[in-house]
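Design a sequence for this backbone.
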């Protein structure tokens, strides 16, 4: 399937809004690096138009798409999902297999691949992980940890029922707890993962001390704006290994590109620097718009 106008294979990111997505920067970089005659675009599609848009992906010249908020759960019902997407309960990647539209979720593998790259052998001897939050990102993280064989995964959330839902979804390895119980587990926590928006630009801070974490603990934060959150800064000050949200963003993009364009791309320092520069430029513009310095 090729774009009827340009004659090249094309994919896109679908969201509402969608202009903030870094996916075009990532995929266009890979298209250039691998010399592929392709394109990757942004499609801002409101929820009421999403089903019609997805059902006509081929007619619009697309071989597939990334799906971002608020469409990830709806995407699951509009395509044939693999077992991973069904288990996580959301799809972020669509592709045409002949005339059949298929769906998967690459967030779990992106999270695990980033951990493997940022903190090699992080899972060696790991018995206890603590996941903060119980939303869609937490589902992907927990899926990845269960798949890797982590025996105890505590999920802390202010609404306990949402954490309990992850326990029902992913099995006995998942231990739901209330948010206020999390600090009491730090002494035994070898992997701490923030899946909430706390600490993100424009959101409240994640106020949590890391003093009780073991010296060999790994801290991961899915937030990538700012690139170094207060949580990751505290982990750095303690000398703990860290995995940031930008790394996950880059690694989760790999399989989609392979499905659409037939080449499995590498996450390189060059790509990371490219996206870091874009994030820095966006932060500068936001500060100017708010009347701040820079």
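Sequence:
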């Amino acid at each position: 399937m090729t774009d009827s106008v340009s004659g090249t294979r094309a994919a896109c990111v679908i969201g509402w809004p969608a202009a903030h997505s870094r996916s075009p920067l990532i995929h266009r970089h890979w298209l250039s690096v691998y010399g592929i005659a392709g394109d990757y675009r942004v499609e801002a599609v409101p929820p009421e138009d999403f089903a019609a848009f997805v059902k006509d992906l081929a007619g619009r010249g697309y071989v597939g798409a990334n799906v971002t908020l608020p469409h990830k759960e709806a995407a699951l019902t509009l395509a044939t999902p693999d077992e991973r997407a069904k288990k996580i309960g959301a799809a972020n990647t669509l592709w045409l297999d002949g005339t059949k539209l298929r769906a998967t979720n690459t967030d779990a593998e992106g999270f695990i691949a980033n951990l493997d790259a940022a903190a090699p052998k992080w899972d060696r001897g790991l018995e206890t992980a603590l996941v903060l939050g119980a939303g869609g990102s937490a589902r992907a993280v927990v899926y990845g940890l269960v798949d890797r064989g982590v025996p105890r995964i505590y999920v802390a959330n202010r609404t306990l029922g949402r954490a309990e839902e992850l326990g029902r979804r992913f099995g006995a390895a998942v231990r739901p707890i209330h948010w206020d119980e999390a600090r009491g587990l730090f002494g035994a926590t070898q992997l701490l993962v923030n899946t909430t928006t706390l600490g993100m630009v424009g959101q409240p801070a994640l106020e949590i001390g890391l003093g009780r974490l073991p010296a060999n603990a790994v801290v991961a934060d899915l937030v990538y704006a700012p690139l170094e959150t207060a949580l990751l800064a505290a982990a750095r000050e303690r000398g703990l290994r860290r995995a940031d949200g930008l790394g996950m963003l880059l690694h989760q993009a790999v399989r989609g590109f392979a499905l659409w364009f037939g080449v499995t791309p590498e996450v390189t320092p060059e790509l990371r620097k490219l996206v870091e520069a874009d994030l820095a430029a966006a932060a500068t513009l936001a500060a100017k718009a708010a009347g701040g310095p820079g």
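The radius of gyration is 19 Å.
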